[in-house]
Amino acid sequence: MPKFVHIPAGDYLVGSAQPKGLEQPQRRIALLSYHIGQFPVTNDLFELFVRETGYETDAEAAGYGIVFEGRCVTTLDPITGRATVTLAAGTSAHHVGGASWRHPHGPGSTIEGKHHHPVVQVSHKDAMAFAAWAGKRLPTEEEWEAAARGPHGLPFPWGDTWLPKLANFESSCLGDTMPVDRHGREAMSHFGIHDLLGNVYEWTATIHQRPGTATTATSNVIYILKGGCWTSRGMISASHREIERGHYWSNTIGFRCAV
After folding, report:
1. CATH code of 233's domain
2. Is residue 174 part of a domain?
3. Contacts of 184 (CB under 8 A, 6+ apart)
4. In a domain, 78, yes or no
5. Rounded Cα–Cα distance for residues 27 and 17 (Å)
6. Is 259 within a domain?
7. Which residues, at least 6 apart from 57, have a Cβ–Cβ distance to it below 8 Å?
8. Residue 173 to residues 34, 84, 185, 225: CA-CA distances in angstroms?
9. Element (H, E) at 147
10. Strands 241-245 and 222-226: what pairing?
11. What is the C-alpha separation between 141 and 222, in angstroms, rounded?
12. Beta bridge pairs of residue 37
């Protein structure tokens, strides 16, 4: 397992002073101490889990995955090494038969050479199954955000200035995930945590409660995701949030554990 970083008890700033989209208003919250994974769960760790348990993911059981294709994609010619940048009108998403964590973009794609990339095509149930096997859990939204912003409530893990080069967003023109340690110490948070913004959205344990609706323990429960991903455009801060049904998976969603 990767290193788990201690986050001390205290008051932490969460939310945005100028909320946009699904962001919550800025406020201070009190948290007990906890530990959170220094990196998202990677393909090699998930492979170990599957090998030891025989676990079948929701994508594998359903026989398909949601595959996003980025607006900006860079490809390398294997013979000449020449890079080609392709621009599309926008990001697209498709139900692709055979897409799973082993084949993130569908049949023909592979995780070979991507052992240190974040695992994708995992549902909320898949993430919780891994966490239970590892003796861990998923972080709450507040724990995730406090770990990213640190004791000073910085809007970005690396500081108070938007530096998209320190994360894997659409502007990277990669069109895919990258290793979780690619951006190094310069991009990590105050607590030494990596890959908090960009690369993949991360499942949290926090349920999104719509006003006037009851929460039920079913596959239709909607959860909060944090961090943005490789298709995200514009400025993404630690207060950014997305929502999705627990019975959903794609090549833009992964997770990290807490304890």
Report:
1. 3.90.1580.10
2. yes
3. none
4. yes
5. 9
6. no
7. 100, 101, 121, 122, 123, 126, 249
8. 35, 10, 22, 23
9. helix 141-149
10. antiparallel
11. 13
12. 4
Q: Is 64 exposed, middle or buried (0-12, 13-18, 19+ CB in 10 A)?
A: middle
| Domain interval for residue 167 | 4-254
Domains in the chain, number: 1
Contact 225, 198 (CB under 8 A): no
Per-residue pLDDT of the chain (259 residues), as tens digits, is 679 999 999 999 999 999 999 999 999 999 999 999 999 999 999 999 999 999 999 999 999 999 999 888 777 667 777 777 777 777 899 999 999 999 999 999 999 999 999 999 999 999 999 999 999 999 999 999 999 999 999 999 999 999 999 999 999 999 999 999 999 999 999 999 999 999 999 999 999 987 555 555 555 899 999 999 999 999 999 999 999 999 999 999 999 999 9
pTM assigned to the model: 0.93
Tell me the C-alpha distance between 255 and 200, whole Å.
Answer: 8
Q: In the chain, what is the greatest distance between 2 CA atoms, to the nearest angstrom?
A: 59
Q: Is the distance from CB of 158 to CB of 189 less than 8 angstroms? A: yes
Residue 129: inside a domain, yes or no? Answer: yes
